[in-house]
Design a protein that fits this description.
Length: 438
């Protein structure tokens, strides 16, 4: 090892504002993967990066080293352009569940490796696992075979995929170094590029229920993700979408699967469908399955109308060991013992529904995890949630709490009453989709 690759020298260089070389970044990521750097050295460099930043070249080298810290799945046996979607996380964001079968039903292969919920934001894996029998822990070989056979697999991260990120993310979580664009970029893209995809569509969210609180921050993150993904040889596009109120009307695992099924039947909430179709349009364009946005949108709506998207979801559930009858009978999903309406205290027009407060109510009911090792209750959460701009009468329903514990239901009700603001006049229309970055 040359002396410049000693951890303390690399840390000092970044501490003093220098740009790290590909070799120095490689040594850091190797140190995280094989344990040759101590946690305090990894943490010190993470903090130095947080404070000093990284150049675009450093971010690209970091992402590549993280991707190569484990296996990179080979999907070259699957014909066509393989396209995935990733969201930076929000409340009620079940988009992946209707989107993957819709896009696969249009002929574009969707290999999707998703995460679990942590803190206020939910995770696609937890939602899917509320379907009785559904397995997300497929091996990489089973994942490759399923994408080839039915054009889609929805699985969790395996231990071989980008292991450096697992180590570094856990350290970032406890060292106040999560909110750093180069580190977020490397973390998200290393995992996605290791899936074996050709192209990626990102949903970069901003607002009360998102990681990035402002549109400007989301814009900066989206630009970095598109640039670094491009440097990695993939075509990456990003939509910027608002996350001030929850997406759709349900927050909670089985309740969100039921809402995703409604979407696939063409009966989903308008905002959820709008974001799903907007992301799907970009996936079809990248996958070469449509000539322009209008044709792509029409194709997506057609597979919903003719039932092919719903059929694809049945196929995915059955292939992953789940009970595909939930598609026709969502009552087969886990059900809570307490179902109670929350009543509006006054009449008026809904002027805001705070996504963070709603998420915390769902968390209190047991729908999410405060710590990675917590168990979740798939049945609980919030459904029938009002949307901004809707009129309510005094005593009318703001939402329905689904709970398995009376004390938790009472606390969640207090939070939900705080989450919804009722005004006298209709608030100005808010943009759900703020732009596309390509
Ligand atoms: N999601 C990730 O996977 N990594 C981050 O750093 C942030 C969000």
């Amino acid at each position: 090892m040359g002396s410049t690759l000693f951890p303390q020298h690399i840390i000092a260089k970044k501490r003093d504002g220098g740009a790290l070389s590909r070799e120095e970044i490689g040594a850091f990521v190797r140190g995280a993967t094989d344990g040759s750097w101590a946690d305090y050295q990894l943490s010190a460099l993470l903090m130095a990066i947080f404070l000093r930043g990284m150049t675009p070249e450093e971010t690209a080298h970091y992402t590549e080293a993280m991707m190569r810290s484990g296996v990179v799945a080979d999907l070259s046996h699957v014909p066509g352009v393989k396209v995935d979607k990733h969201s930076t996380g929000g409340v009620g964001d079940k988009v992946s569940i209707p989107l993957a079968p819709m896009v696969a039903a249009c002929g574009v292969p969707v290999p999707m490796i998703s995460g679990r919920g942590l803190g206020h934001s939910g995770g696609t894996l937890d939602k899917l696992e509320s379907i009785p029998g559904f397995r997300t822990d497929l091996s990489l070989d089973a994942y490759r075979a399923q994408v080839a056979k039915i054009g889609c697999a929805l699985i969790g991260q395996t231990k071989d995929l980008a292991p450096a990120d697992k180590k570094l993310y856990a350290l970032r979580d406890v060292t106040a170094t999560v909110e750093c664009i180069p580190l977020i970029c490397g973390s998200i893209l290393s995992k996605k590029l290791a899936e074996g995809i050709d192209a990626l569509v990102l949903d970069v969210k901003y607002g009360r229920g998102a990681f990035m609180k402002t549109e400007a921050e989301a814009h900066e993150l989206a630009a970095a993700l598109v640039r670094v993904g491009g440097a990695g040889g993939k075509e990456v596009r990003a939509l910027l979408t608002a996350m001030d109120q929850p997406l759709g009307r349900a927050v909670g695992n089985a309740l969100e699967v039921a809402e995703a099924i409604a979407c696939l039947r063409g009966e989903g909430p308008e905002d959820l469908m709008e974001v799903t179709v907007a992301l799907g349009v970009q996936m079809l364009l990248l996958g070469g399955a449509a000539k322009d946005e209008a044709a792509a949108g029409a194709k997506l709506l057609e597979v919903v109308r003719n039932g092919r998207a719903l059929e694809k979801f049945r196929e995915i559930i059955a292939a992953q060991g789940g009970d595909a009858r939930v598609v026709d009978d969502p009552a087969r999903l886990p059900q809570a013992t307490i179902k109670r309406a929350v009543a509006a205290p006054v009449a008026g027009i809904v002027s805001s529904v705070d996504a963070m407060e709603t998420a915390l109510a769902a968390l209190r009911l047991g729908a999410g995890r405060a710590r990675a090792e917590d168990k979740i209750d798939p049945a609980v959460g919030v459904a029938d949630l009002v949307k901004i701009g809707e009129p309510v009468r005094a005593g009318g329903r703001l939402c329905t709490i689904h709970a398995n514990d009376e004390a938790a239901a009472r606390e969640a009700e207090e939070r939900l009453l705080r989450a919804v603001t009722i005004a006298n006049a209709r608030p100005p229309d808010q943009r759900l989709i703020a732009g596309l970055m390509a």
